[in-house]
Design goal:
It contains ten helices and 16 strands. By secondary structure, it is of the alpha+beta class. It has a seven-stranded mixed β-sheet. Strands 9, 11, 12, 13 and 15 form a five-stranded antiparallel β-sheet that branches. Strands 8-16-10-14 form a four-stranded antiparallel β-sheet, with no helix packed on it. Helix 1 packs across helix 3 and helix 5 packs across helix 7. It folds into two domains: 288 residues, Neutral Protease, domain 2, CATH 1.10.390; 108 residues, Galactose-binding lectin (Jelly Rolls, Sandwich).
Length: 427
């Protein structure tokens, strides 16, 4: 999370923007109240003085000044290096400038005046702040282009704050901006959780517990203008949820990255302009994501097939589809009316883990791995119902039939196998 204030000093075509980004307290897991402030100032150009009990470390993309034990400092640098590679890969721009990190484990070890005055409040409240200066040049069309930028991070020594602030620093030093609050803070939260070859949800347990216990916040509220960084960890949680969904779900990912790059380059665009035409679809998947949210949940595997065609069967007509065990609801391509009777038969086997037993669409004795169905109508879902490998089924309502292999939503990524589902008019 962060709050931002901009102070611009312009002279002819050159401008200097001084920005502060503040992260709320890391006590979010306990639900503690917090308040963080962001200030704007010039970054000192001279080296910081030596501080007893505080050591300097360096890696390819970072310099780190910290009072953390040596092993913890080196482990943090490893995490930061892994994260910055993933972040740079996502944006398509390698980190080209060292990111300066100051990470405080015990503020009492740092003598008076050794912590930047603008970082003291954030450190004392258990958060972090990124102090940045950016120089802009106006193009012939009047657009402000960043020509130089520098950021310095101050953060407490927890598991997430240094990574969060490092994402802000990367964006500032690479683009000269971090975008509007919802995007800037959402992406910083997203970045701190990114791990190599891990596509599932992997967030702080406190954030997960909060999101699962709340009614979903409206998308229009999450992306509303006029928000400030550092407002609350709860708001940061909603921004993460939106950015994770947009970045991971293939229905929206192809538009999300260009949107982000446009925002970072101060081009005229917005969330509404990009996703407005698919507002109903994105609202449906956003609410579905939050309903089934858990550690390991794969938004890509649970994405909705909006292009599938559905037909109401008559006479000798039939429909056939291959259902993948490692995906969420998939279209059976049949449209039903209440009372329609259908005959369903399945061929094939699937597994609920790499070493699990092979199951038919009847599943195991506990019903795990069984073929189940649901009806979609007007962006609403019915209650799920059992189907199995062979059954005569009567539609309880009107809608498009979707089916899947029953398994915990957070566990489908290790499933394998497919079942061919054939549906025809029943007796």
């Amino acid at each position: 999370m962060y709050r931002c204030k901009n102070l611009q000093l312009t002279a002819l075509v050159l401008g200097l923007t001084l920005v502060a980004f503040s992260l709320p307290t890391n006590a979010l897991a306990q639900g503690a109240k917090e308040k963080s402030t962001g200030k704007s100032k010039s970054i000192r150009g001279k080296d910081l003085p030596a501080v007893p009990g505080v050591s300097d470390y360096a890696s390819k993309n970072f310099t780190l000044r910290t009072d953390m034990p040596v092993a913890e400092a080196k482990e943090l640098l490893t995490r930061l290096e892994t994260m910055i590679v993933l972040v740079a890969r996502y944006f398509g721009k390698p980190n080209s400038q060292i990111i300066e990190m100051n990470v405080v484990k015990d503020p009492n070890i740092w003598p008076p005046n050794s912590i930047d005055p603008d970082a003291i409040n954030s450190i004392q409240s258990g958060g972090g702040i990124t102090l940045s200066v950016t120089q802009f040049q106006r193009s012939s069309t009047g657009q402000k282009q960043a020509i130089a930028a520098k950021s310095i991070v101050w953060a407490v020594a927890d598991r997430g704050t240094p990574q969060h602030e490092a994402v802000h620093a990367y964006c500032h030093q690479t683009f000269g901006r971090t975008g509007p609050t919802w995007y800037s803070e959402g992406m910083a939260e997203l970045g701190q959780y990114w791990k190599e070859k891990e596509d599932g949800v992997n967030i702080h347990e406190g954030v997960l517990k909060y999101l699962k216990s709340q009614e979903p916040k409206e998308l229009t509220e999450i992306v509303a203008s006029g928000q400030q960084t550092g407002d609350s960890w709860q708001n940061y949680s909603w921004r993460w949820a939106l950015c994770h969904l947009l970045a991971a779900n293939p229905n929206y990912a192809s538009r999300f990255k260009p949107l982000g790059l446009q925002l970072l380059n101060d081009q005229q665009t917005s969330f509404e302009a990009v996703y407005g035409p698919m507002a109903k679809e994105i609202n449906f998947e956003y609410n579905f994501f939050l309903t089934h949210l858990d550690q390991g949940y794969r938004a890509d595997l649970c994405s909705w097939d909006w292009k599938a065609k559905f037909t109401r069967l008559k006479g000798t007509g039939s429909a056939q589809s291959k259902i993948d065990a490692m995906r969420g609801w998939q279209p059976a391509r049949v449209l039903v009316k209440e009372g329609d009777k259908l005959a369903i038969t399945c061929k094939g086997e699937w597994q609920l883990s790499k070493s699990g037993e092979k199951l038919t669409a009847d599943g195991d004795a506990d019903g795990n791995g069984k073929l189940v169905g649901i009806l979609f109508q007007d962006y609403r879902l019915s209650e799920p119902f059992d189907l199995g490998a062979t059954c005569q089924w009567e539609a309880p309502a009107e809608g498009e039939l979707f089916v899947r292999c029953r398994d915990d939503w957070s566990s489908i990524a290790d499933n394998s196998g497919t079942v061919t589902v054939k549906i025809k008019v029943g007796e």
